[in-house]
Queue: 2 jobs
Job 1
Amino acid sequence: MGGRRGRIRGNRRKVGAVTQLPYEGVTNSYPAVEILNPDQVEQIVDGALKILATKGMRFLHEESRHRLIAAGGKADKAQQTIRFDREMVLEYLSYAPASFTLRARNPLRDLIIGDNNIVFTSVGGPAFCSDLDKGRRPGTYAELCDYLRLVQSINVIHQEGGGAFEAMDLPPLSRHLDLYLAQFTLLDKNVQAYALGRDRTIDCLEMTCIALATDRAELKRKPAVLGIINTNSPMQLDVPMSEAIIELASAGQVSCVTPFTLAGSMSPVSLAGTLVQQTAEVLAAVTLVQCVRPGAPVIYGSFASNVDMKSGSPALGTPEYTKMTLASSQIARYLGLPSRSSNTTSSNCVDAQSAYESEMSLWGSVMGHVNLVNHAAGWLEGGLTASFEKLILDAEMLQMMTQTLEPIEVNEDELALATIAEVQPGGHHFATEHTLARYQTAFYPTLLSTRENFESWEEQGAQDTATRANTIWKKLLEEYEQPEMNESILTALNEYVDVRKKEIAQN
C-alpha cells in the first residue's frame, strides 16, 4: 500500500530552517475512487466515438489533415474537419503505451508516468507572478529563475511545469531559449517543453539532447520531453499545437493532450456531455500522434470544469471539477492511457478560498489515481498568476497527501500492546520507551502549518499562512544549491542559444 520509489535522502530533509519530506516518487496503491459504473464509462466513450464518426474534429494544420487522411480519416475540406471511423480510432489507440519513463538530468529523478504513479508538477504558463512584497506584476527573467530555484528546492515537486510565468523583459520570439537554458542549468529534475509551435518544440528537443549528453536516436528510445497539447474546445486543434504534436511524436516524446472544456461555454452544460466531448477531442489528437509514430507516448489530459453562470468566468476547484477529474481518470484507464489533471483555484490571492479549492482539485486527482498532476504547486487566479507564497502552500498540501498515502503498519511492535499495558489508567505515553524511540519520526513534520498555542503564536508576530509562506520561500532561496553540470555541456547549451537567437533575429 502506498509504496515509495527513488528516495534520494533519508526520512526527512532539513534545508536551513525548513524541514520537508525527502524527494521520492509517489505510488498510490489505495483503491481508486470510481464514480462511474462500467456501463456509464462505455456510454461516454461510445458517445465520443460517434461524435468523431459523424461530426469529426477540425484540424487547422494542413499537414495534420494530410496525415490523418492517409491513415483513413474522411475529410471535409470546406470545414477543415476530419471524421474518424470507430475502428480507425481504436486501432491507433491500441498503439499508445499505458505507462512510460521520462528521463531527468539526474537519473534519480526519472519519472514513471502511468500505472499507480503520481507525478506533481509546478505551475506553468501564467502571464504574471505575485508575492506579498511586490504584489501581482509581469514577471522578469530574474524572477523566473528564482521560481525555478524554488522548484528545484522543493522535494515534493517532481517536474518543472514548462515555465512558471512569462519573462516579460525578454523578446517574445526567443524567450523560450532563455527558459530552456534556465531549466537545464538550475534544475536536475525533468522539465516540460514550451510546446507552442514547431520551432519552440524543436529547440527543446535539441537542448534536451545537449543537456542529457545524448542524441535524437537515444532520445527516441528513452523519452525525456513532455509537451502540453491544448485543444481549442469545442472540437478544434490549432496550427501551433498540431506542429508540436508532430515534432514530439516524430521524436518519440510525450504529448499530453488536454482539452479546456468549461461546461456551459466550451462544452455542454451537463457533466456527461462535457466528458463525451473531452474524450472525443483527446481521441482525435491521440490518433494524430499515433499516425505520426505508432507507440509514441500520449496522456489523456483533463481540465474539465464549469463556468460561473452569474459572471461567465471559469469556476475552478469546484465540486464539478472534482467529479470530472475522478471520471476522466476512470475513462483514461478504460482507454489504456495515463491521465493528467491540475490543481486549480479561481482565487486571486493566497487565502482560504485558494486552499479549499486547491484541496478539492488535489483530492480528486489523488483519489482518482491521476498520473500527472499539472500545476500542482503555485497556481493562482485561474492560471493567470504564479504565486511564490502559493507554491509553498501547495507544497504543504502535497506533502500531507503524500504522507496520507503511507499505509498504517500493523505488526507486533506497532500494535504496542506492552506499552498500553505499561501505562496506568489516566496516565500518559510521553515518557514510554515506545514513544521516546520514535517521537522524532512518528508523525508528519509540517512545512508551513503552525501548531503553537494562541499566546505563543501572538508573541511570534501573529503571522498568517501567507506571511509564513513568504518567509519560507525566501529561506529556501538562501539555501539553494545549483546542481552540477559538466562545463562542456554548459558551453554547448549557451552556444546553441546564441546561434538560435541570431537566427530568430534575422528572420
Job 2
Amino acid sequence: MNLIKSTSTFSFFTLLSRITGYFRDVLIAIYLGSGPIADAFFVAFRIPNTFRRLFSEGTFNAAFVPSYSSQLKIKNKAKKFANTIFNILLLSLLFIVFLVEIFMPGFVFIIAPGFEENYNKLDLTITLTRITFPFLLFVSLSSFFSAILNSHNKFAAASASPIILNILLIITLFLSNHLNDKLVFYLSFAVTIAGLIQLLFLIYFVKKYFIPTLEFKFNIDNKVKIFFNKLLPSIFSSGVTQINILIGTIIASFQASAVSYLYYADRIYQINLAVAGIAIGTVILPNLSKYIQSKNNKKIIFIQNKSLELSLFLSLPATAALLIASEQITSSLFGYGSFDELSVRNSSLALFYFALGLPAFSLIKVFSSFLFARHNTKIPFYFSIISVLINVSVSLYYFKDIGFIIIPIATSISSWINALILLIYLNYKKYFFFEVKLILNLLKIIFITVISSFIFYNLIIFFSDNLNYDSKYKLIFIIFSVIITILSYILISIATKAFKLNDIKLKY
C-alpha cells in the first residue's frame, strides 16, 4: 500500500466534497445570509451533519476497522461480525430517530436554548430539524459501509459519497427563485433525501465484500462486545472537535446571528482539516492495525512518523494563510448577497481563532489513530473529556463579556491541550518514537512555511484594492494568490528536500 497515493485518493474526493460544500454554502449565504432563518436552518442542519462527521470522519472507522480487519483472513467470521454490527446499528438508529422525532421540541431546546426568546425562530427550527433528523439513520449506516470499504483499502467511494449531499443542496438552491419562502423547507428535505441516496450509492460498491441480511436474533460474541465498548469512546474522542463545535453552537444560540458566523468560519477551516487530519488518520488505520498485530516495529515507526510529517506539512501553511488573510478569504468566499460586511467581519474573526487550533485539530486525528490501531479508545476518550470540560468552562465564563468569539478561542485552546497530552501519553507508553529524519523535516517545514507566508502576505497587500468587499473579482484574486503560494511552497519544499518526489512511491 502507498501512503501518499492512498492519502491522495482519499484527500482528492474529500477535497472535492469540501469544494462542492463551499459552493453550497456560498449559495446559502446569498439566499439566507446570517439572519434568524439562517440560524434556524443551520441548527437543523448542524445536528445531523455533526453526527455525519462524528460517524464518518474516522470515528466509526476507529472502532470498526481494527476489529473487522483482524478477522478478514477468516472470511465467514468477518462477515458474521459485520452483519451483527449492522443489525444492532440499524435497530438502535431506528429507535433513536423515532424517539427524537416525538420529543423534538425538548431536543431542539437542548441544542439551541437561546432560541426560546424568539418563538418563531424556535418553532421553525423544530420543524426543520424534524425534516432533517432521519439523515442520521442514513449517514450512520453509510459510515458502516464506508468502514468496510476502508478495511479493504478502498477509499474512493467512501470519501466521494458526501458529495451527493452537496450536489442535491446546490440543485435546490439554484431553484430558489421558484421556491421563494419555502426554500428553507426544501433544503431540509434535500438533506434527508441525499442521505438515502448516499446510502444506496455505498451499498452498490460494498456488495462485492459484504451484503447484509436482516436478523432479529444477535450472536453477541466477545468481538462484538469489544466493538461496542470501543464505539462510544471512539465517537467522543475522535469527534472531539465536532463535539466542541456543537457545544459552541448551543452557547452561541444566545447571541443573534452567532450560530451563522461560527458555521461559515467552520466551513472554511474544515477544508484543510479534512485533508491534513481526517484523510491521513483514516488511511493509515487498517495497515497500522495489521502491523501492530504482527509486531512489525519498523513499519509501525515508519507509518507513524510519516503520517505526522504529512499532517504538519499540510496544516502549517494553511494555518498561516488563514491567520494572514482571514477577512479577505471569508469575504471572497461568502461575501455576496445577504452576507453583508458585518457578517464577513464577525465570521472572519471566528475563523482567525479557529485557525490557531488547526494544527492541533489535525494532530488529534493522527495521534488518536495511533491508539485506535492498538484497540485503545478509552485513553483518547478520557483526554477528550478533559478537552471538552476546558472548552465549556472557558466559553461559559467569558461569553457574557466578549460574546461568541470566545467559542473558537476556547476550542483552539482545548484542542492544543488535547493534542499535547496525547503526545505525552504516546511517548510515555513508548507507542511513538521521533525519528531524527522527522525532526529535521519538521524544521524544514516550519522554515518553508515562513517563506511561503511572506509571499502570501505580500500578494494580499499587492491585491488589497481588488480584495475589498465590493470588488466583483475578489474570488479570482484570492484564488490566484493561494495558487501562487502553494506552488512556491511545493517548489521550496522540493528544493530543500522537505518533500521528495520519491515519497510518492513509498510503500507501507
